[in-house]
Amino acid sequence: MAQAAESAARKAKPSGPIGKYGSGSPSSNADPPKRAGMGPGLRRLNSNFSTKFISEKGTMPKNKDYFGFVELDGFACWAVAESFDNDSKLVSARLAVETVLNLFEKKPTISKRKLDSYVKEAHNQLKIHSGKFQFKASIMVVATNYKQLRYANCGNCRLHIFRGDALTHKSEDQSLYQDMVKQGQIPNDELHAQETRNLLNYLGKAGPMQVDVSKKIDLYDEDVFVLSTWGFWEKVTTLEMLDSLEDCGDPEEYVELLQDLFLSKQELTVNNYTVAAVFTHKTYQVKDNRKKIILIASIVLAALLVAGTILGVILYRSAVNRAELIRTIGEREQRANIHLQDRRFDSALNEYDSAIENSEDLRGSRGRRGRENQEIRDNLNLRRRIAQLIADGEALFDESNYPEARDVYRRALAEARSAALLNPELLDLLDPEYIEGQIELSYDREFIRDLVLTADAQAALSQFELALDNYETARNLALDLGDIQLHRDISLLMERAKSQAFEAESERIARELQQAEQERAIRIQENEITELEADRLLREGDFEGATNLYTAVQRVYLELGEVSRAAAVEEKIANSMESIRQQGEDEQATIAQGYLNLGDNYMIESNFDRALDNYRIARDIFTTLRRAEDVTIANERISIATTRQTEANRDATIFNIMMIENQGDELLINGDYAGARERYMQAQIMFRNINEMDRVIALEEKIRGVRELEALSNQDEQVEEAYG
Fold first, then answer.
1. What span, in angstroms and rounded, lies between the C-alpha atoms of 150 and 161?
2. Is 686 a member of any domain?
3. Who has greater pLDDT, 673 or 367?
4. Which of 61, 345, 366, 428 sits most deeply, having the most CB atoms within 10 A of its CB?
């Protein structure tokens, strides 16, 4: 099967060890192993692992899954990931898989600590590259030394290991569903796992992220392990995967059977899905030389004991002094680390300075001891430099110099993350979440400060409402941050602004009351003139103009508290409205008839939507006029238009489905049996949905014919392979 573009295979670097991504068979032009014998360098040549995978986008616009693997002389690694974000340019699953595989190529291993660090670095890369959308992905990493394997999981990608006709291991996803199963709240039901998409951990997650790393698992000849994304295993159960494995001798046949099983369950919507199968035809066998090694070791040990006794007397004093000095340095470093974790940065700096000063007394600058001495000094200087950056950031933060504090914090994080590639525990020691939290907090503090300054300026300009809104926002943010003193300070500023606002409002009200009395007398006089104008319009037959003026006059009388005069105007409004009603009914009936005629024209053009719109407008007007006979006519035309529209839509649906069936015919003619069968199955489902059972039966015959052609084609290929 053709793989998706996002999971295209890529070769390993020619200068490195033997290996490649995307294929399970050894490369025909691979570099020769670097050393002979049966050591790790030849494990791959003395074992036989084969890999095949399928990764498809389903009915989604883009495949956001990614699968890759690398096979080296002594180790191999497979990784599958699924993206959860909405970024249309960069596939976060690909970034995660390539990050892990690149690190594995540089340092191949099945170490629990290393695999954990590789996955966490993928997590860091997703966070670093996040832009408009937060990158999020799930990943499953499987590493082996061709005799044992270990896997690392973050999210809900899954690993199954089969031996013979039994499942020997199945990974657990990091979802709410799995957590509820562990706690005994719900039974473990693969077909009804509603919360497997509700992840507790995933790459790119804000806050703490945990990687589940397994213990070492022994591999045996003919073991099969399967990696899959959620889009696949949510539809195919473990039992179905085991049943499909029966009588399969190679991974290509197996993944094709799994895909057929998967597609047979789908409806119109199919998610991205990826499944990879690895067949361990032969594992690496280790020869047991323990007895010979024990004998040789005993002889060598006896000789070393004699020489060691003599040399020990000479070097004892130097070793004791060096060990004591290193112990002192280690104790100071440990105390500094504790201070750093407890955020007592000044104390941490003092301890680091003392440890660095002690390290200067370590003798030797060459050989192994020289390298050890340099590593101790470099480690201390690195930690001291990062601690100094954080301490500087804290000082700038306390001085409210937030932009410079953020710059210093980011430099500390960047140096720590760069160093963590070789020493992962450094990030845990520094608590990056605290530093990132301080960066976020600095934005909040800066925003609060700017809000308060803006509110002060608004209060000085008597813009008290705006000022109080900004004070209130700043005060609530301070409360959210837990800063009680800042909350109190802003509250005092609010009380002062409220007092100033009350004084200004009292003066304004007194002025407005005096002005209102003067304006009231003027408005009554103007309103009386308007009422006389309305009387004139009524006498002249301008009923609408009279009604508008009477309504305005009545509103003004009510606003001014002249209730009796408003009641007298109400009677005038009633008389005018009655005249308007009598005049308008005939005009409305003529308009409604026009909409009916317009709907008839649209019916002739088969524009049923526009016809229905006009018929309904006409019916609403006739209903308002209480003309029952005309309402009945309009409803009859609506019924006719609806019926014809339904028939037209069904014909269009049948035509579209037949186009899909025709695509299957073309693929069949071109010999693409799998593509033809997929189109026929899709058309068959769509015909069944609209109850076209004759066409469903006809397509069933076509599908059966395609399968027979596929079987004949496979037999021909097998014959050609046998005699070719």
1. 12
2. yes
3. 673
4. 345
Q: Is 9 helix (H, G, I), strand (E, B) or coil?
A: coil
Nearest-angstrom CA–CA distance, 614 and 601: 10
Residue 634's closest CA among 650, 652, 619, 612? 619
DSSP class of residue 203?
A: B
Closest residue by Cα to residue 109 from 152, 67, 53, 48: 152
Residues 208, 347: one domain?
Answer: no
Residues 273 and 351 in one domain: no
Mean pLDDT of the 157-164 span: 95
- Based on the fold, state whether residues 362 and 426 are members of the same structural domain: yes
The CA distance from 429 to 163, in Å, is 42
Distance of alpha carbon 287 from alpha carbon 283, whole angstroms: 13
Domain's final residue, options 249, 282, 315: 282
Could you give the percent of the chain with pLDDT greater than 70?
86
pLDDT of 459 reads 87
pTM of the model as a whole: 0.41
- Cβ atoms within 10 A of the Cβ of 52, count? 21
What is the H or E stretch that residue 170 is in? strand 166-170
Asked whether residue 607 is assigned to any structural domain, the reply reads no
Quick check: is 466 in a domain?
yes
Distances (CA, A) of 107 to 17, 115, 216: 11, 10, 18
Instruction: Examine residue 512 and state whether it is found in any structural domain, yes or no.
Output: no
Give one word for 256, left, alpha or beta, with left for phi > 0 and alpha for psi -120 to 50: alpha
Pair of tokens at residue 504: 């200004």
Let me know whether 259 and 397 are in one domain: no
Domain around 668: 650-723
Q: Based on the structure, what is the number of domains in the chain?
A: 4
**Predicted local confidence at residue 263, as pLDDT:** 92
Looking at the structure, do residues 278 and 294 belong to the same domain, yes or no?
no
Question: Each residue of 652-673: b (16+ CB within 10 Å) or e?
Answer: eeeeebeebbebbeebbeeeeb
Looking at residue 124, its pLDDT comes to: 95
**In this structure, which amino acid lies at residue 28?**
S
Residue carrying the six token digits 């002690």: 358
Assess whether 165 and 16 both reside in one domain.
yes
Domain boundary among 381, 400, 430: 430
Stretch 376-400: mean pLDDT? 83
